[in-house]
Amino acid sequence: MGFNRELVGYWLGDRLPLKINLQVYDTLASTSETLWKLMEKGASPGTVVVALQQTAGRGQWGRQWSSNLGGLYLSLALTPNLPTAHSSYLTICTAWGIATQLRDYEIPVELKWPNDLILDRRKLGGILTETRIQQDLITQAVVGVGINWTNRVPEVGINLQDFLTKIDSLEKLAALTIQGIVLGYSYCNPQKFKTIIPAYKQLLTSDTYRDTTAESELFFQQLEFK
């Protein structure tokens, strides 16, 4: 199974505010781990690492993310210079951005707090944001994304092959995901962040509202008083 980076560039176009530098690998332990190493060597924001499969993909709470051939596994480098008090902005905004891009292609993706991608009540994908901090500022961030495309998934999961979609290639899915991250990133400041909260909350699954965690409820309550 190949991957055409030129096709990703075609779908991305030239309107993104961030220059994308795409690095593609057949197999990696982790796209995020590889990207951190590249950033230590001077890789610029907008660098994207894609792997056709991962042997040690990471999910939320240290869980392993199954990364078989046929899924989308990518990580994107950012330099937000965001106060650590606003670290949740990256998580919320990128989840909203990716879901919004997919919904524009008539894929009714929802979100499970804080950043699982849900389709037809099953898990389509997940997002893991990792950061580096200096003097109370998030100076570097890596947004890692895994989305099921044609790969085999457990019963609690779903891939896009099982859902009629206008996204007809892994390259197009990669481009939409990158666009979604960049879209969300553009709202990662205190002034713009609050404007997407209503849209984000509308994307939350009914399960999220029924089984709201103390963390999510406290998060939104605190926002109302800031």
Write a brief structural summary.
The protein is of the alpha+beta class. Helix content is 35%, strand content 25%. It has a single domain (5-224), classed as Bira Bifunctional Protein, Domain 2 (BirA Bifunctional Protein, domain 2, 2-Layer Sandwich).
Give the arrangement of secondary structure elements.
Blueprint: H1 5-12, E1 21-28, H2 31-40, E2 47-54, E3 72-78, E4 82-83, H3 88-103, E5 110-112, E6 116-119, E7 122-134, E8 137-147, H4 170-185, H5 190-203, H6 206-210, H7 214-224
Parallel strand pairs: 1-2
Antiparallel strand pairs: 2-3, 3-8, 4-8, 5-6, 6-7, 7-8
Domain BPL/LPL catalytic: 2-194
Organism: Merismopedia glauca CCAP 1448/3
GO cellular component, one term: cytoplasm
What do you see in this structure?
By secondary structure, the protein is α+β, with helices and mostly antiparallel strands. The protein has one domain (5-224): BirA Bifunctional Protein, domain 2 (2-Layer Sandwich). It contains seven helices and eight strands. The protein has helices at 5-12, 31-40, 88-103, 170-185, 190-203, 206-210, 214-224, and strands at residues 21-28, 47-54, 72-78, 82-83, 110-112, 116-119, 122-134, 137-147. Strands 1, 2, 3, 4, 5, 6, 7 and 8 form an eight-stranded mixed β-sheet that branches. Strand 6 and strand 7 form a beta hairpin. The longest helix has 16 residues, at 88-103. The chain is globular. The mean pLDDT is 89. GO terms for molecular function: biotin--[biotin carboxyl-carrier protein] ligase activity. It comes from Merismopedia glauca CCAP 1448/3. Residues 2-194 form the BPL/LPL catalytic domain. InterPro entries: aa-tRNA-synth_II/BPL/LPL, Biotin_CoA_COase_ligase, BPL_LPL_catalytic. Keywords: Ligase.
